[in-house]
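Hi L., both proteins are below.
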Amino acid sequence: MKTKLEVKNLCYSYHTLEGETQALADITFDVKDGEFFAIVGPSGCGKSTLLSLLCGLIEPESGQILIDGTVREKSHTAMGYMLQKDHLFEWRTIFSNVALGLEIQNRLDEEAKGELLGMLDTYGLSQFRDAKPSQLSGGMRQRAALIRTLALKPDILLLDEPFSALDYQTRLEVCDDISTIIRTRKKTAILITHDLSEAISVADRILVLSSRPGRVKSVLPVPFAQEYDRPLLRRNAPEFSSYFNQLWKELKTHD
């Protein structure tokens, strides 16, 4: 499996009138093409900062980000970003919400509209195409947000705790649903989460960051047998608790 994304010796600090706060220090890791990669760590360790660096919202102080072997600044690889909240516009219909990115890029032609309608149908939202977001459950809203992201055909998906605003039962169901969609489409995905069980249930590998400034403590592979091919099934796998204990021990080990 070829490498999709490489991060080499990445460093970043925040600067205020009170002084400098180092957020990330010497971060190095890689993500394979089509891999589901999770990042965990204590609060304030720089997880969201790392995603912002990966997609170019902020620039590193030092280090490199390579996508398909090309420095990020010169790469034409498309990235999709899903946030904690769905950020659907309440005055627009579900169809016009999922079409927003294409509309902004002036790519909403008849073929694109047909593809959007197909995704709404595939992911159980076709009957709500003319509904407003307030008429949908939290899980359905997040599914619409995913369709809006996938419509732009990104090669890499960045997921910043996209299930954290949902109640626990809905969170489990939507995580299972959306993760399976991403795997079926063979997308490269990077998930940030505070939930260790969630990370184990979706990821191929999990990167563990230290407390601030965030450093790479370890990268833990979490392979499962073929029959445990969905997050909810993985939670019942015999090796699940072993992975959880491994991850918990790694997080609790002093830097």
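That was the first. Here is the second:
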Amino acid sequence: MSQHTVGINQFTCPVRIPEKGGGVQHTVATIDLQASVTRGRLESCVSTMVTLLGRFLPDIHAGIFPELLSEICCQLQAAEAWLTMRFPYFIAKKAPVSGTISLMEYQCAFTASSAAGGEPLLSVVVPVTTLCPCSKEISAAGAHNQRAEITLAVRPLALIWLEDLIAMAESCGSSEVYALLKRPDEKYVTERAYAQPMFVEDVARKVAQKAMTHTDIAWFTVGVESFESIHNHNAYALVDSRDLKPDAPRG
């Protein structure tokens, strides 16, 4: 019997995400949920999915994906089910000199499939600063710099906190980005970026090197996009761990 992929997209709801420090963060998630079902199950698909999501709210996090996707498959007699949950995650961050605290927002996502047992892929989008090495080399004073975004997606072998993935990526740019800086902080981050010029390829390579040594990461991709300040285009680089070693697990 033929299968049809149906589901719901852009389902927004409040969720609670466990924090590394032991707390719980309240945020708002956008969920896409699909299943491969036979024609006879199409009419009940949406109501079943919304009901099941409601049962787990507001504690829809990566730890319950296996149970949720298993329930979807069971109730809809689905061959497979997929879920993607995107949400902003906030971390209180201290400015490097003044110690001023402000909230930094990071876009995060969990993606899972019942075919993989419901174990999720984790991804984080982390802003950093990149300063152009060739601009620094050819200029008598200064060098152009810009904000860039690192998108790191991993298949974990064990629990990996979002905070740790964000910190891993954040440490690999020319400088970190902050929501609030005082004058001494601005001086610090400007000079730090100038001392650490990087192309997007350099940033991607540095993140990949750190991810390769993490014992709880089975597979990863890292993409870096630089929003160029003197070009009418962006610069981009991508590294997939499957291309780095022949025995790397398939993503």
